[in-house]
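Feature request, filed as a ticket because there's no other form

It would be nice if the structure record came with a short human-readable summary line next to the tokens. Right now we just get the raw output. Example of a typical job, pasted below so the devs can see what we mean:
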Amino acid sequence: MSKATLRQATREALANTSVRSALTRFADSYVISREQVYQHKNFEELRREVARIKQETAEHLEELAAQFTREATRRGATVFRATTAGEAREYIARLARSKGIKTIVKSKSMASEEIHLNDHLKEQDLDVVETDLGEWIIQLARQRPSHMVMPAIHMSRNEVAEVFRREIKQAVEPEISSMVQLARRELRRKFLSSWMGISGANIAVAETGTIVMVTNEGNGRLTTTLPPVHVIIVGLEKLVPRFKDIVPILEVLPRSATGQHITSYVTMITGAVPAIDPEGKYHEQKELHIILMDNGRTRMAADPVFKEAMQCVRCAACLNVCPVYQQLGGVFGDVYTGVIGTLLTAFFTNPEKAQVLQNLCIDCGRCRDYCSGNINLPALIGELRRRTVESKGAGYTEKVIFDKILPRRRLFHRFLKTASQLQKPFVRAGKIRHLPLFFSGLTSGRTLPALAYVPFRDLITTLPRPKKKNGRVALFSGCLIDFVYPGIGKAVAGVLAAMGFELVHPEDQTCCGFPAKQVGLMDNFAELARQNVAAFMDIDAEHILTACPTCAEALKFLYPEILAGDREWSQRAREMAQKVVEFSSFVYANRKELIPQLVPFRHKVTYHDSCHLKRYLRVTMEPRQLLKDAGADLVEMSRPDVCCGFGGSFTLKFPELSNSILDRKLESLLETGAEILALDCPGCRLQIEGGLDCRNLPVKVMHTAEVLARCLASDGRVQ
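Raw output as currently delivered:
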């Protein structure tokens, strides 16, 4: 798959409004249901325990596999260790041929999807029937699952009814109860006539040789009990050391997957049991075959970074909350979908495709907060990007920007100042509404703010000064405040002055480097980190303040990380990080002198949580309290923490997708009836303000600093 193919696939997926509607409806209800079922549970404690268990599995994979094999064999099972997908497929096909089996029923199994088992068995003239309702629908429709837990979530009831009419030759009303009855009738015949059942597994216990299945439909138990031959396909990552390790996984799996306290069926299989074949003959012990499959898992477990992905319990929570997946469905993935699917694809099925799919991650961090296995999914995507660039190289445009321009501060700033003059033919009332040629996508669905004719760094001498000094603060302005929104910088300076803080703006500071990190160019990111650490190293200031959460994350968390192996710069980066504070947090902590000076901001205001502010800096309450302190009538929007679709370079790669995610954010905003949208991220402002302007919607977007500055400078009215 090429990047161009992926872009085309995203456009086609966006055109399918029924899929997007189904996914977004489920996502909205899922978050509410999940919150309710975790009310009396400590999710953080549970997922740390799950992560600990799965880490132990990854570190002792071979030992646990050997122990499971011994225990399961001792209890009457036949265990086959499959190194590759081909070995697993052929074992099942050979087994069926040796028994003269023609019809096979299958319970839902992502492992069987991973190895493309159905296609292989069909080539052997075997009739393989999926019995999970969603999987059966997908099989009849000749599609592939779009979700790890709900494979047919992308299909409407009318589409399903049409599939039944076409494939089963029976008309059925597009009512769920009618279609379920039809499916039950058709599938029951298959259960009663099949000699082999194939299932997957959610957990494999090394201590006892037990297989655990978690399902919501009775088909799982029919598949594992009726046929006299039962084959279980289970990946090595599903192993756990002890029987008691089942408990925390069963606590998180249904809650995180579907918002249930527990699923309808939890089935535990320990050894072979009696069976009655389709001819009515009693078998004292059915044949139980367990395929313990590797197919890239030992390689993942041995990888010092990606072994963390072995903590996944396949709950699909990361899909359920992903703003990109909600728009695209199965396009964001291969056999496995979403962010975790991209990582599994890199090791299990199609590494080349994974290198392209990783571009779809917008890095909002929401998946990390919901992950039942406590996996830092965005960090793993970042590592996949780094390795992709390392192996394939960066594109021409990226090389020019990140090799030739960004690391050269004076050239970069001169380039921006020149661009501010060249933009004049396209600017109307401070906005760029149309761009020519291949830039046109940037103004599709939104306007762009014009580059400032006078950047913030050239306004420093005109900024207000404090009447008394409570301290000295160094400001890291970041590219957007410096060259696009100098008004935010002026507002920050005004608020600091009112609080008695002197502001300094080191001349040698440059881009924080996050855009380089975002595309996987870690050497360029490290170089920009060194430049900024040097710029602030000798500045006499108690704090380093920034009004951009992305910059704050870079300076506070990512610089010490990227420079950790650099003996000369590591300590300096850590010392700088200790001083870094985001604007709203700083003002909130020092607001006693500010509040008496504020004229009430008598407007209805709603607030947007930027991804980096909430998910990485963990700041949510502080800006809201400041808005209340300013006298604003604060109303919460639905989904305030869902990404606006900006994502830096993401909006350049996928403008239509970015715009579609933005539509969801604007929908939430307009439902509040607010006059003002407050936020703390210049990137989010660019995205949301541009979308509002393009749609002629009368909502003003303001940085929290601008709201506070307005209350200091006037009677609080918005101009």
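Something like this underneath would help us a lot:
The chain has 34 helices and 23 strands.
The two ends are 50 Å apart (CA to CA).
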